[in-house]
């Protein structure tokens, strides 16, 4: 799949969402008040207002801004599977943006031109919409993951010999713009939408942006305790895999979108990942068959040290004859 085709596939749902919003807005323009209700409280009553022109262009601008973010993600995807997952997530996001905006226009049109405060947008509508979109997106991504070619297995790393009582540790800090910049953009967009638009749309985006920030920079450590991955900004989130649980370690090359469906802390069946970029990664397999993947430079050295620590730990626990 060419880059142009990837970008067009990803941008399509956003174009449809923006066009649908603009068409519904134009069709109801004569029924809309000069100042529209654009912000609603928990009970569905209007508590924030905006001029018609501002409501139209802020809605189209929000959709277009998020579309640019997803198109960039599709353009940098290194595998077709990653591009398909990006397109699926983009389609869900376009629906999550477009449907509430259209619902707001319909609510204002039903209230009439004289009393925008009479507009109502029930919370249950947005909750049902969110559940349907999330369920559909999850099913689509699962299908794409099953249809994708089988990933390459991690390369086994040699074991670094360690004498009894010898201390050794390895540590690297990983910072990713792929998470940091989108997190900042989503947080800012969510804040603006919460203040000036439908809070039901802006608040989830604001929370999502804040949740992504702590894992945009992490420190990966291998020492006598095992594997530890911790945020450099906050004490949590934190991933720890003790030596007792580790079977072996190796290195692998992964595609963030193709193998894990995105960046951040990823959860798949029997597989967990702290994925901050595509490329080299440390792969740790536990005695229960679960795999932990952490994208980090010099992963082969980390895996060799971890294998050496595991081997020495196993020898210390072995009963004497």
Secondary-structure topology with pairs:
Elements: H1 3-27, E1 35-40, E2 46-51, H2 52-76, H3 80-111, H4 123-147, E3 155-156, E4 170-175, H5 177-196, H6 199-212, E5 217-223, E6 226-231, E7 238-242, E8 246-254, H7 256-260, E9 264-268, E10 271-275, E11 279-286, E12 291-295, H8 299-317
Parallel strand pairs: 10-12
Antiparallel strand pairs: 1-2, 3-8, 4-5, 5-6, 6-7, 8-11, 9-10, 11-12
Helix pairs in contact: 1-2, 1-3, 2-3, 3-4, 5-6
Shape call: elongated
Structural class determined from secondary elements = alpha+beta
**Percent of residues in beta strands:** 15-25%
Number of strands: 12
Low-confidence stretches: none
How far apart the termini lie comes to 61 Å
Overall pLDDT metric: 78
Major sheet details: 6 strands, mixed
How many helices? Answer: 8
Describe this structure in words.
The chain has 321 residues and is α+β, with helices and mostly antiparallel strands. Helices cover 51% and strands 22% of the residues. The protein has a six-stranded mixed β-sheet. A four-stranded antiparallel β-sheet has the order 4-5-6-7. The chain has a two-stranded antiparallel sheet with strand order 1-2. A hairpin with a 6-residue loop joins strand 6 and strand 7. Helix 1 packs antiparallel against helix 2 and helix 3 (80-111) runs antiparallel to helix 4. The longest helix has 32 residues, at 80-111. The model has no long low-confidence stretch (mean pLDDT 78).
């Amino acid at each position: 799949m060419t880059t142009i085709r990837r970008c067009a596939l990803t941008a399509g749902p956003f174009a449809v969402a923006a066009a649908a919003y603009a068409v519904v807005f134009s069709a109801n323009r004569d029924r809309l008040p000069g100042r529209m209700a654009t912000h609603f409280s928990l009970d569905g009553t209007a508590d924030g207002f905006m001029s018609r022109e501002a409501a139209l262009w802020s809605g189209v601008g929000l959709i277009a801004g998020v579309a640019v973010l997803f198109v960039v993600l599709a353009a940098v995807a290194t595998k077709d599977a990653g591009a398909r997952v990006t397109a699926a997530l983009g389609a869900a996001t376009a629906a999550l943006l477009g449907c509430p905006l259209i619902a707001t226009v319909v609510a204002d049109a039903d209230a009439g031109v004289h009393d925008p405060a009479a507009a109502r947008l029930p919370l249950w509508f947005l909750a049902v919409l969110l559940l349907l979109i999330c369920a559909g997106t999850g099913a689509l991504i699962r299908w794409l993951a099953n249809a994708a070619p089988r990933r390459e297995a991690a390369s086994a790393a040699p074991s670094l010999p360690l004498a009894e009582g010898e201390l050794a540790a390895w540590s690297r800090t990983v910072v990713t713009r792929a998470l940091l910049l989108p997190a900042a953009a989503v947080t800012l967009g969510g804040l603006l939408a919460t203040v000036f638009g439908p809070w039901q749309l802006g608040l989830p985006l604001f929370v999502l942006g804040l949740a992504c920030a702590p894992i945009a920079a992490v420190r990966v450590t291998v020492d006598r305790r095992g594997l530890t991955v911790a945020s450099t900004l906050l004490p949590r989130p934190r991933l720890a895999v003790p030596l007792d649980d580790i079977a072996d370690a190796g290195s692998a090359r992964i595609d963030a979108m193709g193998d894990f469906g995105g960046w951040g802390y990823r959860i798949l069946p029997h597989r967990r990942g702290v994925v901050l970029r595509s490329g080299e990664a440390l792969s740790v397999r536990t005695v229960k068959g679960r795999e932990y993947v952490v994208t980090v430079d010099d992963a082969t050295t980390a895996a060799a040290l971890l294998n050496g620590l595991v081997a020495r730990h196993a020898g210390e626990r072995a009963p004497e004859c």
